[in-house]
Amino acid sequence: MYESPIRERLITGDKSYGQISADICRPIENPPTKAWWAGFSVSFIFLCLLVLSLTITVMEGIGTWGVNKTVGWAWDITNFVFWVGIGHAGTLISAILLLFRQKWRMSINRSAEAMTIFAVMCAAIFPLFHMGRIWNGFWNLPLPNALGSIWVNFNSPLLWDVFAISTYFTVSLFFWYMGLIPDIATVRDRAKTKTTKWFYNLLSMGWNGSIRTWTRYEVVCLILAGISTPLVLSVHTIVSMDFATSIVPGWHTTIFPPYFVAGAIFSGFGMVLTLLVIARKVMNYEDYITIHHLDAMCKVVMLTGTIVGTAYITEFFIAWYSGVEYEQYAFINRATGPYWWAYWTMMSCNLLAPQIFWFKKIRQNPTIIFIMSIIVNIGMWFERFVIIVTSLHRDYLPSSWIYYRPTWVEVAIFLGTMGLFFTCYFVFCKLMPSISIAETKAIMPYDQLPIAKARMEQEKLAHSH
Amino acid sequence: MEHHHIEITEERFDFNSKTKNFVFMLIALGLVCTLAGVFMLKGEAGNIMEKRFWGSMLMAGYYTTLISLCGTVFIGINYLSNAGWSAAIKRVPEAMGQYLPIGVLTLLTIFFVGKEYVFEWSIPEVMNNDSLLQGKSSFLNTTFFIGGSIVFFGLYYFFTRYFRRLSIKEDKEKDVKIYHTNRRVAGGFMAIFGFTFPVISWMWMMSIDPHWFSTIYSIYNFAILWVCGITTICMFVLFLKGRGYLKIVTEEHLHDLGKMMFAFSIFWTYIWVSQYLLIWYANLPEEAIYYTERKGIDFGFQFWFNLIINFLAPLLILMTKNAKRKRNTLITAGIVIIGGHWNDLYLMVMPGVAGEEATIGLIEIGPTIFFFGIFIYVTLASLAKQSLIAVGHPYIKESALHEITP
């Protein structure tokens, strides 16, 4: 396919096919670096903290958390929505950007999809453990049981969420693994020792690179991409309905579905940037995840941040316009009540801060991008906190108004999920190619292709004669 | 270096008298239908004629203005997203935007003359006896309405002209700097559009039912703008191709347009469901009344038909790859989508304006034909003013060689 010369190159450094495989496989084939060990150890300590705090929660009960009769949902659901949101960049990149033929997605989709899977794992912890009796967790599923009339409530968006999230997790996992198979085979073929060969051979499912395997691979990928496209929208739409179907002022508002989806993509890209700005440096992937990749991601962050900001303003305006005093109070209370600091953190991190990405210089400065990505993560965490806690803490009965504070156990669980997420990510980086080798080769700039080089040689010869 | 050859030449659209006469006939037909409708209903009790007349005028005026505005939004988004495939058809959306000033002028005329029949809040007695409406009076007032519309639409028109002027200049000078200027300006336009279009949808559509409110409403309006605008672009492209123009536009471009018609019909449905489901589920009286009116005996059929024609029909017609690459299926889908969203807008406007007296007659159909006629005239006239192919666009070759990889 012809490409305009003014387009940015997606792979720099005049690579050959062989170099691409070698570059991407290097972190897998070499022994782990010091940086890897350091990151992995810290993450692992936090993972232990997760085990500890969850054990305490199960042994002692939900009383170890700060929730109470006014604020029945707080830290747990905030983190659940936070993590589910983080996962959205993966599906957006693999499904929607695929449909929009955004080729720059090729070198970031693998890690973003991996992130999706780890983030959904982190998210699933919260609804399961907030039930208190984790051993009854399977009650979430519509399984016939011996407990008489206990049956899931199909009218409840919380049940829809069970289906949405589990479908999302399954499809993302398959999609991610499907994409990995040819690359695992590459790693297998390059392996030097018997054990690694055996290990990657097992995982590559007998991939032999024949036309037949490629054809089937492409059909399956296309089908999975088709299934994931509605999932980008459906998952966070249903998460938003956990709140919006209620009649709680501040929760019941029709803009929630698209606004949650935009917010999820925003936070997801925030996290992708946090990881990739570091990874491209540490793993020497700067020729594949170029500054223009970061530039494009910053644009997505700015766009989705601004959409989310428009939604904040819309909510505020319509609350005033509606003339419903409870609705008006909910929003005034958010901005000026006891949690004003959370509200203004959210506003400045999500709406104002990303506006600096209007400037190209900033979009191409990894240090600022990294700081911004952290700000986005913070802002989106606070968005969920604001929506959940400020809408609940002052209910219709002023005698039950309360100021919610998390306990150390709750904080530890959240930090612990961070540990789980990063541990998984470090293990993934070490074991699997974190850039798609096959897909990256497919977007090689034309003049770097062997055939183009051969042609150039020919032309040179023809001229010299 | 690369071995791709294609000839990209300027093309001139000849807006000949035969085409002109056809469009004039369309405008005349609309006018006749409207006048016939007015005479048939004249003098009926309860201002039925006035309500139906001004309601359908607003519908038609708003519909054509949205489609016209979509032209500029399409240009803006394509600049920002660095899109290459659309360079070959970009003159069509550019021309569509040229109708904007006429669209706004008609909307403002409708407001000046017929506001009391359409916007009940504009009647002082109603406003003064309704404490809820008084709470909104700093937004729902004539000054803001007119001032806001002029400023917002004025800005949109400014950008429309700017993009087009530079794009034509680019054809002559072939300077990539011009492209980059337009890209930067597109950022400004999209930001302004994003923050002001919701206000326009609240003013012109949501305030017809002044007690009702819904935060997703502006996105719903945007979904209509986007899907109908892209459909209209596709129809103009098919028309020009049918006349032998746009030689570099192939099935591949039609496929892309077809995909967008398909995808954004589903997007519209997503927004529709989000609004309906949440209001139905919570069932708060002040919100649910909107759907109670629409699901009742007067509009019930149209209400459910709306989902069939705007969701199910495009979904089935455009599902396969071949359907998106064929002229006839695209035209069928185009008629369905444009007609379907007429029904959609009818349900947004008429229950609030005419209530149980609303039906579909000549007086409803006439203004739409009339305004669409003018819109088509303005678009074709401005297409005829310069080359149909943006030969200086840096992505024009990419667009001409555009191929969708399977």
DSSP strand tally of chain B:
0
Secondary-structure arrangement, i.e. CATH architecture of chain A: Up-down Bundle
| H/E element sequence of chain A | HHHHHHHHHHHHHHHHH
Helices of chain B, by number, come to: 16
Number of strands of chain A: 0
Radius of gyration of chain B (CA) equals 22 Å
DSSP strand (E) fraction of chain A?
Answer: under 5%
Shape of chain A: globular
Count up the helices of chain A: 17
CATH superfamily of chain A: Formate dehydrogenase/DMSO reductase domain
- How confident overall, as mean pLDDT of chain A? 91
Q: What form of chain B results from the Cα inertia axes? A: globular
Number of folding domains of chain B? 1
Q: How many whole angstroms does the radius of gyration of chain A measure? A: 24 Å
Which spans of chain B of ≥5 residues are poorly predicted at pLDDT below 50? none
Helix content of chain B: over 70%
Q: Which structural class matches the secondary elements of chain A?
A: mainly alpha
Mean pLDDT of chain B: 94
Largest interface, with counts of residues having CB < 8 Å to the other chain, equals: A-B, 40 and 47 residues
**String of helices and strands of chain B:** HHHHHHHHHHHHHHHH
